Structures are given as C-alpha cells and as structure tokens.
Amino acid sequence: MMDKDTASTLAAYRRELAELHTKIRAVQAAAGPEEVQDYGFATGDGPVRLSALFGARDDLIVIHNMGVGCAYCTLWADGFNGVYHHLASRAAFVVSSPDAPAVQARFAAGRGWRFPMVSHAGSSFAEDMGYRAENGGWLPGVSVFRREQGRIVRVSNARFSPGDDFCILWHVFDLLPGGAAGWKPQLNQA
C-alpha cells in the first residue's frame, strides 16, 4: 500500500503535468499557421488530394506512420483505432505511410483498423512536414491541418517516440513496478 506522502507527491507531479499541458496548448494556439500545398496521395480507390481528406470537417489530423515494418507505428495505430470514432467525431482523421495502398489495406484488415489510410509514396508530403530522417527513412508523428479562407494550413505537429503522450500504454506501464522494464512492441504481440 502506498504511503500518504508518496501519494501526495505523485498527485502534485500529476497536477504539474496537467499545468504543463495547458501551457503547451497555449503556446501552440499562439503559433502562426503554416500554409501548405494541396498534396496528392494514393489510396485503394485512386488518387486523392489533401483537401479532400477533410471531408465535411475544417480540421484534419494526419498520422505520419513509418509503415508496416515498424512495430512502434503499429502500436500507435492500434491505439488510434480504439478511439477512432471519438477522433472522427471532432476532426477528420487519416493515417499516412509510404506503403502502397494494397499493402496498407492488407495490413489494416489484419489488425482490424477502421480509419482511412493514404500513401505518401512518390510525394514530398512527409519530408516537407519534417518526417524524413537524416538516413533517408521515415519518422513517426502527427500533423494537424485546418481549412482557412480557401487555404490549407498546418496548425500543429508533434513527433512520436516511446513513452510519449500519444500512446496510453507507456503511462499504464509507468504504474507497474519497474515501469515498462525494457518492453518493446512486436508486430505480432502475443
């Protein structure tokens, strides 16, 4: 059983985290939007433009996924799949990866993913958004776009990394003795 002092200290740290998130949102809201071009993507139904991904929404969340070979990206996508209907009730949501649409469709079906996917292969989208690694590979993260006065602007973005705020798993593991204890996701986690 946790002693009172430890519980009080943990509660104070959690309040500090909540306050820090409030500060992050304020800085993000104050940042000027970055106009972007109307990028083209490939889907199983043919080409689609960034502007079309908004559907009837003014806001669009695009997850930058490294593709089917990345266990961490799969972990994040599994988590987004679980809350997809909540996300889609607030903004349009899509996962973008370098994989061909047929590869995306097979992998998504095998995992039960419900969200739409697009392929950025052959475009400069992921690189222009800052999700290209120095070694030429891809980086995971999220970009949020808004339609404003006939333009598309990126209003925020964040990189993903193990332990980040974009996957609840790490925070639940933090409650275990030893935390994640070196755990790493596998593509076929048992």
UniProtKB/TrEMBL annotation:
Which InterPro entries is this protein grouped with? DUF899_thioredox, Thioredoxin-like_sf
Q: Which domain of life is it from?
A: Bacteria
One Pfam family linked to the record: DUF899
This protein's name: DUF899 domain-containing protein
